[in-house]
Amino acid sequence: MKWNSNLYDNKHSFVAEYGKSMINFVNVGKEQKILDLGCGTGVLTNELAKNGATVIGTDLSKNMIDKAKSNYPNLIFQVEDATSLPFKNEFDTVFSNAVFHWISNQEKLLHSVYTCLKDNGTLICEFGAQNNISQIQTAFEKVIEQKGYSYCSPFFFPSKEEYKLLLDQAGFEVKHIIEYDRPTPLADEEKGLRNWICQFFASDLLEFSDEQKEQILLETEKLCKNSIWKNNQWVADYRRIQIIAVKNKNNRTK
Ligand code: BEZ
Q1: Which atom of ligand 1 is the closest one to the Cα of 240?
Q2: Which terminal residue of the chain, N or C, has fewer Cβ atoms less than 10 Å from its own Cβ?
């Protein structure tokens, strides 16, 4: 998907704001080396670097990396595929916020993360859990299918049991894993849901004309109104999975 980095920074800054609480789990001391995996426009990379840790931000999107470099010229950013990172036994921590659900090959992803970490290094991440955005996705799917098109969700939203198994199999020792509801108010009052859809479902909308797109947005808003329009704003039905897992080199079987 081609990411719109300006829309992301202007209207979806909440993604990074929520991610800041995850930084409390990270040892950000001077001697630490941290990878911010899927760093977007670099807001959290910058937070992670504030105490003097060495931090590298990577993202698959060149648009995002260009914006991150211009936002924070003193930090290191690289375009990289999370499933084939070019690092070996390098990082004390791999940190990632709101990224893993975009990646379909989770075995490859976890193998790549495992390889990047030093022995006893830590993966600290949060992303969409089972039933994340189910109201929005179900409404969008219904509208698209009523128009004779098919919708195939690109997302991976696991339960904590399912993900613990994947982490175990990849050789991690799971220290903390929880799932929780995190209702998320969207900026821009009545425009909030359409902004969100235009940003995050951009590739599903590519094949439609402007007129069809407007119709899809209106109909999706209508279907979502009862469930996620609350006190004059859209509140997205986010569910999160939060993980702290340690690389244990004796655990890996493959
Ligand atoms: C999320 O952060 O949960 C998310 C964002 C955009 C699309 C799907 C999920």
Answers
A1: 3
A2: C
Q: What is the pLDDT of residues 195-252, one digit of tens each?
A: 999 999 999 999 999 999 999 999 999 999 999 999 999 999 999 999 999 998 776 5
Enclosing domain of residue 41: 5-132+155-184+237-247
| Whole-number Å distance between alpha carbons of 158 and 237 | 15
210 lies in some domain: no
pTM of the full structure? 0.93
CATH number for 79 = 3.40.50.150
Q: Is 252 exposed, middle or buried (0-12, 13-18, 19+ CB in 10 A)?
A: middle
- Dihedral over alpha carbons 134, 111, 179, 120 (to 10 degrees): -160
Centre of ligand 1 to C-alpha 43, Å, is 17
Residue 198 buriedness (CB in 10 A; 0-12 / 13-18 / 19+): middle
Tens-place pLDDT, residues 50-108 = 999 999 999 999 999 999 999 999 999 999 999 999 999 999 999 999 999 999 999 99
Query: How many domains would you assign to the chain?
Result: 1
